[in-house]
Amino acid sequence: MNIGEVSERAGLPAKTIRYYEDIGLVRPLRSDNGYRAFRDSDIHKLAFLGRARTFGFSIEDCRTLLDLYEDETRESAQVKAVAQEHLAAIDEKIAQLRSMHDTLSHLVDACHGDHRPDCPILKDLAKEP
Amino acid sequence: MNIGEVSERAGLPAKTIRYYEDIGLVRPLRSDNGYRAFRDSDIHKLAFLGRARTFGFSIEDCRTLLDLYEDETRESAQVKAVAQEHLAAIDEKIAQLRSMHDTLSHLVDACHGDHRPDCPILKDLAKEP
DNA sequence: TCTTGAGCTTCCAGCAACTGGAAGCCCTAT
DNA sequence: ATAGGGCTTCCAGTTGCTGGAAGCTCAAGA
After folding, report:
1. E strands along A1-129, which residues?
2. Less crowded by CB within 10 Å, the N or C end of chain B?
3. What CATH architecture applies to the domain A1-57?
């Protein structure tokens, strides 16, 4: 199967699929004309990767997860560990963003947003801590 | 004032300050020996930038905010607009992360995390949607 | 005075994860 | 024969720095 159809089926842009081959996440065969020839297993892998990426896993995590997926002797504890670490990172990011949100929304609420130059947002940014 | 002291005072790495000069956010003078010579106003600007960055504003937003800060004829509505747009982006990111968190934490909870290969996390990643 | 070490300079490369574009081959249909 | 769409590679750019190498400057100590 050519890259265009794979792109549709796996839900990934062709560019991304080529990139994933570049970094060794998939290894499609090649036809005589030089076109990539994807097997069902390649498409399956790509869909797996796409889904893992929507969970926010890094490419390296994706590589690990894919390896585990293909390893019959894996222990679910290994998978769980990767997922938990990622979950912790997500939590931290949410906390960061929430703190940004809270500070900033206070400032936005305090700003008149009119034609006058006076602005608590700028005042806060400029303040000496 | 040399870059080292400015770095401490503004709370930004020297590398970052040089980078900010590169992209035109600050324009320190130069001493005869070629060293950057920062005025108080430069330090003030850098601290402003540092604080804006902790709020998660992009560099381009920071540039805009700095311009507004220095523009006596600004209207606070302009500042508020930038901040509100950023706030909306933050909200969106939080929503995304929360959705990731929710799905993933369910899967993590469902995973035994033992020595056996069976794993609902991998099962989910591999499923056909 | 010479040397040593810290601090400064520039420039180049690399991170993550793609994305866009150019130049050019391949295949099918008219 | 030619037009088009799909495929190929390679290079550059995105964001916001960060690390490192090579080399100049300055102040202090032997």
Report:
1. 29-30, 36-37
2. C
3. Orthogonal Bundle (1.10)
